Amino acid sequence: MFLKRFFALLSARNKEFLRDKSSTSWNIIMPILIVAGFAVTFTSDFSDQYKVGVFSGTDSDHAQNTNVSTFLKTKHIEFVEITDIEKAIVKIQRHQLDMLLDTSQLQYWINDESPNGYLVEKILNAHGESGLQKQSVTGKEIRYVDWVIPGILAMNMMFSALFGVGYVIVRYRKNGMLKRLKATPVTALEYLSVQIVSRLLLIMAITIFVFYGTNFFIGYAMHGSHLSLLFVFALGAVSMISLSLIVAARITSEETAGGLLNLISWPMMFLSGVWFSLEGTNPIVQNVAEFFPLTHVTAAARSIMIDGAGLLENTYHISVLLIQSTLFLLIGAWAFRWE
């Protein structure tokens, strides 16, 4: 009987969503439009500056080493102080840095596939710095659209989870539907489970469609496992659906629910690293971002797609999402009221 009731409610909820053509269409069209906009806008880099990483090691006096001081004063080149040379080499491979200059070991790295790296090397040699030892790396450029797509997909999941579950349950409570369900054999656990499973299936179906549909035209950088990416997105969706249950547990006003959901979603959207990296931001902001499920979904998905990382490398993010999902679900189930 439990499974019969569960699947009956699940079928009804899925049909309700699919029949709402405006909501279904918006969940599909919005992320596609955002991806297309970024793909067109950031196809070319219009900046006239080159970017060179400078690693000085224990020697801070560049003039004592190969006379690089003249090169470091070159206009239209942005010189970035580097503290981790291994991470900087990865940025060279991804074309995020045009050159890496190590003044302590008298060597530099460029990407042989980078036009900017080739030109910066010519500028370096023009200053008579041929005594530096050249190190070559290879790697394709990571476009901004490659970097931002995991966050866009996660953000779309967030809005669909929060408003597609939390707002709907509040509306049901307001119009008396939950009161009628209370008179049936359906338990609160069954009802909430249906909401989670139904929204999870719909979110994942839309996410898969958007990802592969836009990937056909854009061709994202995908160095990791598709199954690992699917797992991270599914776990993130469960976490954000569970978060919405806390908002919908007792509220009876749609206006209040909408305000609270916006209060949760907008800070997450801007402080979770979706649009820009949080590196270099205020430590307080970085610490606050750690409490957002969207932060961990985006970071894990980005590391899988761009770095080729697996689930083991993302143990921290996965553990946080599991803890948050369990905690949110327990609080939501404990606080839920039919009326």
Report on this model:
The protein is built from 12 helices and 5 strands. It has a 5-stranded mixed β-sheet. Helix 2 (21-41) packs parallel to helix 7 (188-218) and helix 8 (226-248) runs parallel beside helix 12 (315-335). 63% of the residues lie in helices and 7% in strands. It has 2 domains: 2-41 and 143-335, no CATH class; 50-137, D-Maltodextrin-Binding Protein, domain 2. It has helices spanning 2-19, 21-41, 85-93, 115-126, 144-174, 177-182, 188-218, 226-248, 254-271, 283-289, 293-307, 315-335; strands spanning 50-55, 77-81, 99-102, 107-111, 133-137. It is elongated and about 85 Å long. Strand 4, helix 4 and strand 5 (133-137) form a beta-alpha-beta unit. It is α/β, with parallel strands linked by helices.
Summarize the structure.
The chain is built from twelve helices and five strands. The chain has helices at 2-19, 21-41, 85-93, 115-126, 144-174, 177-182, 188-218, 226-248, 254-271, 283-289, 293-307, 315-335, and strands spanning 50-55, 77-81, 99-102, 107-111, 133-137.
Structure keywords:
5-stranded mixed sheet; elongated; D-Maltodextrin-Binding Protein, domain 2; alpha/beta; 2 domains; 12 helices; 5 strands; 339 residues; single chain
The counted number of beta strands is 5
Q: What is the number of independent domains? A: 2
**Low-confidence runs of at least 5 consecutive residues:** 44-48
Topology pattern, helix = H, strand = E: HHEEHEEHEHHHHHHHH
Biggest sheet strand order reads: 2-1-3-4-5
- Mean of residue pLDDT values: 78
Question: Percentage of helical residues?
Answer: 55-70%
Task: Tell me the major beta sheet.
Answer: 5 strands, mixed
Query: What oligomeric assembly is this protein in?
Result: single chain
Number of helices: 12
Sheet-strand content, in percent, reads 5-15%
C-alpha geometry: elongated
Report the end-to-end length measured between terminal Cα atoms.
25 Å
Give me the secondary-structure category: alpha/beta
Q: What Rg is obtained from the alpha carbons, in whole angstroms?
A: 25 Å
